[in-house]
Amino acid sequence: MLVDFIATIAAGAGVACLIFVANHLSRRVRGEKLAKWVMPAGIGLAMIAYSIWNEYSWYPRMRAALPEGVVVAMAPTDRAFYRPWSYAFPIVSRFIAVDTGHAARSTADPQVFAANAVVFQRWQSEKRIPQAFDCGAGARADLMDGAALSEDGKLKGAEWLTEADDPLVRAACSGG
């Protein structure tokens, strides 16, 4: 968040420099300076424009930076009263992906494997949640509190969850 703040200030400072140069050129070419409101209005607009661009481009930039084998499972959109434009154009500020590139597959059944569900959220570090997937049954299980998936594909210490059209199972088993 500090980096975003510094970048927003830098955008305003950059536009201030451009307006300063334009003011001097205007004085030389036209013989008069720009209106006094141009500098603060330009700085404010630049900072707002950068903030909006940064909000809306976060998800596409993060998705493009995902390594091979990480598949986005779901990306819910957000709307907020303090961002009234988000009602017309919702923002994605968090998403969940499945890291199938580092999956531990069962030796008995390759459709049963363990992989991490990775939660990405703006201004927070990623969180990895161990999961077990059974693509044949369309099920998954949380591997928490000592739960494990053995090499032969047997789940120990957890229950398989079968939900109709589970986005994590869909991403892990069919690539999204």
From TrEMBL:
Transmembrane segments: 6-25, 37-53
Entry annotated with the keyword Transmembrane helix: yes
Keyword vocabulary terms for this entry: Membrane, Transmembrane, Transmembrane helix
Keyword Membrane annotated: yes
Protein name: Uncharacterized protein
Organism this protein belongs to: Albidovulum denitrificans
